[in-house]
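User: quick one
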Amino acid sequence: MKTDIFCTSPVLDYLRDLHREFASVTEGKVATYIPELAKADPNWFGICLVTANGTVYEVGDSRQPFTIQSISKPFVYGLALEDNGRPSVLAKVGMEPTGDAFNSISLEPGTGRPRNPMINAGAIATTALIAGKSPATRLRRLLEMFALYAGRELTLDDAVYRSESETGHRNRAIGYMLRNFDILSEDPGPTVELYFQQCSVSVTCHDLGVMAATLANRGINPLTGKQAIRAEYVESVLSVMGSCGMYDYAGEWIYTIGMPAKSGVAGGVIAVLPGQLGIGVFSPPLDSRGNSVRGIRVCDALSRHCDLHLLNRPRTGKGAIRFKFTAAEINSSRVRTPQEAQALHQFGSSIVVYQLQGNLDFATAEAVVHDITHATASVRHLILDLKKVLTVNESASRLLYQLLLKMADAGRPVLFTHVDHLPLLRRYMKAKLGARFSELFRSLDDNDLALEWCENRLLEATLPAREPDRAVQPTDYELLQNFTPAEVEILTSLLKRRVYQQTEAIIESGDDAREMFFLARGNASVFVTLASGTRRRLATFSPGMVFGEMAVIDRSPRSARIVADTAVECDTLNVEDIERLGKSHPEIRIKFLENLTVSLCRRLRKANRELSLHD
Amino acid sequence: MKTDIFCTSPVLDYLRDLHREFASVTEGKVATYIPELAKADPNWFGICLVTANGTVYEVGDSRQPFTIQSISKPFVYGLALEDNGRPSVLAKVGMEPTGDAFNSISLEPGTGRPRNPMINAGAIATTALIAGKSPATRLRRLLEMFALYAGRELTLDDAVYRSESETGHRNRAIGYMLRNFDILSEDPGPTVELYFQQCSVSVTCHDLGVMAATLANRGINPLTGKQAIRAEYVESVLSVMGSCGMYDYAGEWIYTIGMPAKSGVAGGVIAVLPGQLGIGVFSPPLDSRGNSVRGIRVCDALSRHCDLHLLNRPRTGKGAIRFKFTAAEINSSRVRTPQEAQALHQFGSSIVVYQLQGNLDFATAEAVVHDITHATASVRHLILDLKKVLTVNESASRLLYQLLLKMADAGRPVLFTHVDHLPLLRRYMKAKLGARFSELFRSLDDNDLALEWCENRLLEATLPAREPDRAVQPTDYELLQNFTPAEVEILTSLLKRRVYQQTEAIIESGDDAREMFFLARGNASVFVTLASGTRRRLATFSPGMVFGEMAVIDRSPRSARIVADTAVECDTLNVEDIERLGKSHPEIRIKFLENLTVSLCRRLRKANRELSLHD
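Assistant: Done. Structure below.
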């Protein structure tokens, strides 16, 4: 949904400027080695930039079809890795740059292994590795692979294919040379034909952008969400593009443009900035090395203007630490007595919550672990909130595991919250912790519960123990503090006892607010249901506390549901009785209201203090 | 300051395991081409990993001195770039990988230009580019450069230097060949000597780790904070390391290990993961290609275990958006009347605040701009909070500039907060906006002021205009609502009028709380001074509102300073008078307390609502 003023994005504006600037470049010559390619209009010119998040920016002739040619090579290399595994592929094709032209044969002395999969010899050896019993099934497999990358069905340009096949003598020679060295184990004919077919796949500049973005996004097509290649092979595909993708221009390309790239003789170029974006450019006129003139200019300008050089990256810093606080600053929604609140304020700094964010890899996790072990002097309870973490890789999992183990050995619990979207972390912990997994890997749904658990442990250690199912008397109610026994008695005469079973609702959201509740025994919690459907705890009360008073004060309907966490006994005070009290015993009503303002004030100060930490 | 349980970091534990594992490797042979190198103990073995944040992890013989040898080449290449600029350097040395061994001569046909600066011929041509009139000043310049990278003075190992010089016939031959092609313009003798000297600089594994981390940190030594090389040249240094750093092993190195790297014949290896970390390894036994056997094994293991491959990166996503909210959810600390609060709740979603974080580059800024222009339907006021942003590069500045311009053209202001630590952004805006800079680039100290400015504009557009210097009567005081005229009169008789000049303190932090204040005319603001020394506004009050009541309620000293923003008139109500009122007119005291509980309740609900957004 675009708004009126944003009919064009700033990124699109920029690409239009680039397109206009380089459209006037007239250098280069359209490939003529087959008649079909010679038909290309030298003015065709498209640019497409696709982010790893799946936003597409395209300008010019971005939907003009042309043949993929050599840009197919890295994708087929990825398919060969998927179909055979890395060792089998490396036995047939190397990965050293040659510094030679695209059609050099460059076989390794001795083994006959082509130097790398980006030269024709290596590409043909790679094509031979596509799985499938017949030429037809292998072609189908090839097209299915391309469809996953492009997010749509791709077809062959038959005219180009026939033309390639009729004139492809040099590639047939390469095929036989490979057969001679047993790099191809069968008649090279069908493999060379399949190679001509892969080069004749018809794509658009838009397709190239999406295909490049799929490589930038660890093999997941960012538009369809489908996996085109396993993540572990993406780095291999990008490595050969980076070191050998632009033939004898590879070193200069990495030096000046700094992105793995591949060009095709029909005028296409792709470039990939891992984790960030993919670029497709199409313009048929080629330079003497066989690379698209405008394609190179556009990639060069984009790299310089947008600082896309792979090796020019700012440091991550402690960017993974979104927010950090202790229980001396922010507490769980368990409502505490003034004495408990004081103990938490005093000792709560030993309970530390780290809210992490982004991608946790070695460097970001190291910064987190370093901060935990150094910046914070005495973490006795550690809560790691992973809600905003996008991914956790294995090396980050290992660092967190080692941290957990060290903490556990010192009797200091680590609690993880919001880990359900990160199954790798749980699997890693399970594999490493074995029998101790359920004891040591504490995973909770939210910080609030985790914080309460830690607070309770801290309070148990610092305050005298309480009876577990303690009931209190009206003299203990927080709002009746400083009352004389006579005053307590008068107020008590207005109270009505109510009893609730565990899980029973005491207040329903939307109800009229007719009374406030004094909790005599058990615990009760306030819950709201968020727009997302998740239930969220706002507060938990213990005996002696008042609840349900706010709606009574501002005469609004109940805003939340209050539920008995345990068997609960309450004393309720009715609105009319409160008002009558003002008439009959104004001094009691005044004292009661004063206590209420003190209670509200304390909670407001706490909320404001916590809010100020978020700025 | 380490704590008891963290005498070792998990990262250090891991490096110790690696060291133990590879210490048992006995393959390889210590270099023997000069007697001095042959004296090295093959058991020497050190590993040092330094993060771009400056955390050092080192194990084994990490402080054993050895000579830097070819690892000097990329650093000297950086120095040549600094001293001559890129075009002059490129005229003398190329950047294409050769696939040949380190001592290959590999001059480009025609120009005689060495293929790249990592082979000896290219390195000698590079050394010739170090600025300085005499050999001594050039050596001094070289050592100063190394000192910046290592963070300490480095010296020559004279024995190794003499030995190199006595046996360096091949390098002298290379020197004369370069002279022959006019790559060297003078007698090659002194340059070749300086080359022997640069190879004889004595370093430790710890030094290598720090030097590598300096390259990972865009040229800033992360331990000293000093700049060793300009950021723009770091990508060039890393590019030649990446494409040519490991000689004929370069393609495989990038394929399997995936970090720019350089090895030396004395057994050192460095590897760099830009933005993240640097690695130094030292172990003298070499493989047949002249690379340290254990050095390669350690880098390979680190890369695999810690997922350090440069081309294997997760997507950034919308990681730059830390928090986003509208003025319908969270408001400035300007205290609003119920009517104003209602208007903000209803229309405030057109005021949107983006709290950004981390490094803003093209990809992260694109995601932000895309979110602003698409996800949020109708942003009429945009606040960009850059407090947690670490860096903004030029391409991100351009996107923000273009966004600002589009918004401005539609009459929609963009406000930036916390931009002082990002001078590049301001400079960029100034250069691009020219005469419109002061009008369009609104930069405020904090979100609160920015939010209030936007809220005020919104309220002006939606509510009837108020008199600018309006004074209110006691009947308008929020706490006297629902009072009868007679009740107002009784209460008013207790009030004492006070007058303050603009900027005068009404309440000082720490004072006893003897009275509450009713604001009759003007504005007053509450300020606290944070531990950091910055003054922070907590609230601003308008006529009719009460302030200073919380300390009166909970009988605590004043917690903040309250200052007259304008000329101010207040009515004060004294504690003793309030108490006396309870005796003489309990019904008025009750009404007053009831109004106070309603006011506190409203503020507590607002604070809780805002707090819940931060989870």
